Amino acid sequence: MRRLTTALLAVVVLTLTGMSPNRSTQAVAQEENTVAATRVIASGPAFPVFDATLYLDKPDLEQLHGLPKLRTHGRLWPRGADDSEPDRTRIVAALSRIPRNDLFFMDIEHWPVNGDPADVQDTIRKYNLVTRWIREARPDLTFGYYGIPPVRDYWRAIKPRDSRQYQAWAAENDALQPMIRDVDVIYPSLYTFYDDPEGWVKYAEVNIREARKYGKPVYPFLWPQYHDSHKELKYHFIDGDFWRIQLETCLKHADGVVIWGGWTDPEGNRLKWDPTIPWWRATLATMAENGERLVNPNAEVR
Fold it and tell me: Is the Cβ–Cβ distance between 30 and 234 less than 8 Å?
């Protein structure tokens, strides 16, 4: 089994020396593009486990357990504003919270990624604008878009590969390839819709396989609660055994994993950090069993 470590992603930093002070702006831009193009996302067997959780009173999981933070941007549109088009000024301003040379994810979920081909092409145009603006403003950053591609569709994804439904879903994923040409990472969403570990594993394996077609590192998002689309189970925590299955599936097929969550419980309350909850204990156990011991056995678990 691959070693599970939480090593930060490697980023190649190129120092340009011996430059003429009269070099053109175009030449500088070309060199910056070359730096971005030669960025190395990961090497060797390292399997990063990223913390993108939102729990109140959460300790520093990177310091305590080696889970590097995965950040995202600030608000991209004012409340109630027209969000049908990206706003360059706000996109660039939202990046100010991202440290230099960091890995992060963009979270834009409301533009259609399937359906009417004209709408999908317009979505691709908008994502490509955002990507270009990020590259121009912050060529030091490494990023991808949360949740796409692949298109999130549980039932079509688990159909037989020769079925009409599966092939239509795969074609929708292929159509999105132009929007991820210039990103660094694919972040498929593998949230839990049903209390069905076997079905989830099939869904996850198929989505990771689709994500691999783009030739980028694949870091799935996992959420230790049931998705809010399930009327009875929404926001309830997944049991520890099921969570371990999810982590181990990603360890087997993906390049890393992102843990998200902490927003709300079934009653709508913000969640506080609980180090005794089964999903977190299962996380620590899985990490310890699959590589270097990331949890200091002499440290108090907080």
Answer: no
| pLDDT band (50, 70, 90) for residue 292 | low
pTM: 0.82
- H or E segment at 72? strand 71-72
Q: Which two structure tokens, joined as six digits, stand for 194?
A: 């049903």
Taken in order of first residue, the domains within the chain and their CATH numbers are 50-294 (3.20.20)
CB 75 within 8 A of CB 96: no
Axis crossing angle, helix 240-253 with helix 278-289, rounded to the nearest 10 = 40
Residue 80 has what pLDDT? Answer: 81
> Rounded distance, CA 161 to CA 166, Å?
6
The answer to whether 178 and 166 have CB atoms below 8 angstroms apart is no
Q: Report angle CA 85, 88, 92 to the nearest 5 degrees.
A: 135
The pLDDT of residue 21:
33
Which SS3 state, helix, strand or coil, does residue 103 take? strand
DSSP 221: E
Residue range 101-113: average pLDDT? 95
What pLDDT is recorded for position 265?
85
Locate 174 and state its tokens: 């292929």
> Residue 277 and residue 240: Cα distance in Å, rounded?
8
